[in-house]
């Protein structure tokens, strides 16, 4: 719910709502071409009029990690948000034109299991080019 509210606030440019949902010093990791740092430019105020819209086509939660996937303006994107129990977002990992697999690691998920992934990008199959693939361990 918090992550969906975040995208609504981003697309509406609702700064007050963004301040309520995001930790002031959000930890950020980005993988992709620098020209696709749309989210960073919007959230930092670097640019206010970006044509890019973040409209997730899929959102899935795994404990404190919430993954959203979407596409727009010729780019596929995946965001992995870390949400505190109080509903504040503390971290985002952003992937552009990259296929992502989220894998659970730990005592309850042996690495040798063939079902050790809990989520995989789906939109990358629409791309008409080869995309790098990454694994995010949670």
UniProtKB/TrEMBL annotation:
It comes from the Eukaryota. Coiled coil: none annotated. InterPro entries: NTF2-like_dom_sf, Wun1-like. Gene3D superfamilies: 3.10.450.50. This is Wound-induced protein 1. It comes from Musa troglodytarum (fe'i banana).
